[in-house]
Design goal:
By secondary structure, this protein is an alpha+beta fold. The protein has one domain (1-288). It has ten helices and 18 strands. The protein has a ten-stranded mixed β-sheet, with helices on one face. Helix 1 (20-28) packs across helix 2 (30-36). The two termini are 34 Å apart.
Length: 288
């Protein structure tokens, strides 16, 4: 079970999990780890995604909405052709207002947020695992630009809205897709795998108007059939960048040294080891 801090209600709650016992079995038993290996390849997630694109999959929508208390009043459409059509639904613009002040750091997705400092040697820790930026993006020259900076990890659970946005206005300087496995991104998986350096990921380097250079990386996960990136080269703050197909997933956003200050309530919860529930476009910090 994972405890989450809800900053709007100022209280913690236990996150609902899909297949929690199955994930525990797969990662914490010898037999489970043996059975897990073939499931980590994209072919399995693509197969599951194909099933969620069938008309028959529509019947899964109602129980999902009821179990996870999904507010369909926020959606642009209320009828869907498949479960994945529902899962990747767009919300009305007024459902997720963007904090537009130039000095505001925003959440790029509905998600659970953890923030980390990047050391002067380029190392940071995610869920007790030490990573280097170069290990994640495989580009030394880009990684060096973020030494001493701040890393924001947005974990999208299965019940979160799975579209995401640009953190600021700017332009794309570079991009790279790194193929890999598709581990779960749940906290449990991090104890058994180097999730962010083993999973399929897609990173881009941005030159932004207000925060210097920003590194943005989408991380695929178990049962996520595909990362759908719209591929804009010039963009505005809060503009939709892309979406994930069915499943959990994560987005890593790195800022350069002395560029951002994380909101104190988020920083305090993170120091206690709690992820913080945030919404697409919500203010999570400010310019340092």
């Amino acid at each position: 079970m994972t405890l989450i801090y809800d900053r709007k209600l100022k209280e913690t709650y236990t996150e609902a999990e899909v297949g929690g016992r199955v994930v525990t079995f797969l990662y914490e038993t010898a037999l489970g780890r043996f059975l897990l290996k073939p499931l980590l390849y994209p072919a399995f997630s693509n197969f599951k995604a194909a099933r969620n694109n069938t008309k028959r999959s529509v019947r899964k929508i109602k129980p999902f909405v009821e179990k996870y208390h999904i507010n369909l009043d926020e959606a642009e459409q209320t009828t869907f052709q498949s479960f994945n059509d529902f899962f990747t639904r767009r919300l009305r613009p007024d459902a997720r207002p963007i904090s537009e002040a130039k000095t505001t750091v925003i959440a790029v997705a509905d998600s659970k947020l953890m923030t980390y400092s990047i050391s002067e040697s380029g190392v940071f820790q995610i869920k007790s695992r030490s990573y280097t930026l170069n290990e994640l993006i495989r580009d030394t020259r880009v990684a060096e630009q973020f030494i001493g900076g701040t890393c924001l990890v947005f974990r999208l659970a299965i019940d979160d809205y799975h579209r995401y946005c640009y953190p600021d206005a700017g332009k794309k300087l570079a991009a790279r897709m790194i193929p890999g496995m598709l581990h779960s991104v749940r906290p449990l998986a991090h104890a058994h795998a180097r999730v962010f350096s083993e999973n399929t990921r897609h990173w881009q380097l941005f030159e932004t108007e207000n925060f210097g250079r920003v590194l943005f990386m989408e991380v695929g996960a178990l049962l996520v059939g595909r990362i759908h990136d719209h591929g804009a080269t010039v963009f505005t703050k809060g503009q939709e960048k892309g979406y994930f197909s069915y499943g959990g997933s994560s987005i890593v956003v790195c800022y350069q040294k002395n560029q951002v200050k994380i909101a104190e309530d988020i920083a305090a919860a993170n120091r206690e080891g709690l992820e913080v529930r945030v919404s697409y476009g919500e203010k999570v910090g400010s310019h340092a």
